[in-house]
Write a structure and sequence with these properties.
Elements: E1 16-18, H1 22-30, E2 38-46, H2 48-60, H3 68-82, E3 88-91, E4 94-97, E5 103-108, E6 117-122, H4 130-144, H5 153-162, H6 166-182, H7 187-190, E7 199-203, E8 224-237, E9 243-256, H8 262-277
Parallel strand pairs: 5-7, 7-8
Antiparallel strand pairs: 1-4, 2-9, 3-4, 5-6, 8-9
Length: 295
Amino acid sequence: MSETKKRKWGDRRDGRWVKAPGLQTVMAYLMPKRTDCEVYLNDKLDATELLQYLEQKNAQHPEYKTTVFHCMIMGMARMVKERPKMNRFIQGYRMYERDDISISFVVKRRFADGGEESLMVLVPKDEDTLDTVSRKIVGDVKETRKSETSTGGVDALLDGFAKLPRPILMLAIRIIRYLDFWGINPKVLTQGDPNYTTILCSNLGSIKAPAVYHHLNNYGTNSVMVTIGTLHKEELVMPDGTKAIRDVIDFGATLDERIADGFYFARSLRLLKHIFAHPELLDQPLGQPSGFQYE
C-alpha cells in the first residue's frame, strides 16, 4: 500500500487507531465479541466476461495458468484498496485500520480425507498486478505441496502448541488473548496467522462445494470472511431486462458490522462486481484507481 504512516500513541503494531463515530464506539462496548456482530451476505458474481478474459490471457501465456481464484484474490485486494474501511478491525474496544492489505487462504496439501492443510497469507503491494499475484500464489502453493506435513511458519507453531499439556495450553492461550487485547502480542504469534488478515478466504469451489456461511473468530483481528463456491451456468436477468445464461460463482461473505455501515458494504460489493465485469482492471497496478463511479 502507500507509505506507512508514522505511529502515534494508541496505535498497534498491526493497525492505526481510528476515532470511530459515537454509534460504532458504543457498539464495541455493547457487543465486544466479533461473533455477536456478524452480518452474512450471500450473492452471485457474474463471471462470464472474466472467463473470456482468462481464456485469452492463458492462451498468450500457457506456461502460467491464471485461475478464477487468482482473479478473486486480486479483485478483493483492489476492492479493499479503494474501500479502506473494509481493512478495519476492532480489538480492545477500539477501532483500528491496517496499513497493508492481507488475504489468507488454506491450501490442501493432498486432496484426500487425511490430507493436511496449510495456511497461506498474501500481502499485495501497490505495484502488483494479476500476473504478479498469480505467480506468487502458484509458487507458494507448489512449495507448500512438496511436503505432506507442515514445514515451518504458523503451521509448525500450532503443532508445537498442540503438544503442550492441557493446563499449560489453557494458560498459554489466556496469556495470548490478554496480549492480543492490548495489541502487544509478539509478531511471531501473528505473522502468517489468517486470524490477523484483512480477508480470510475459503475456496470451496475447488472441492466442488457451494459457498456457505462461515463464522468470524473472536480471536485475532479478521473482520471479513469470504467463501467462494462452484462456477456454474445460471439464467440471469440482464440490465436491459432480457434473460441470458451466464457463468456465475456463488459468493458468501461474513462481516463485522461494527467496522462500517450497510451502505458502505453494499457499495464495496458493487465495486467487486464491476471489477468482474471489467477484468482488464486486474492487469492494472493495485495502486491505480479503477475509476468506478458510485451512483
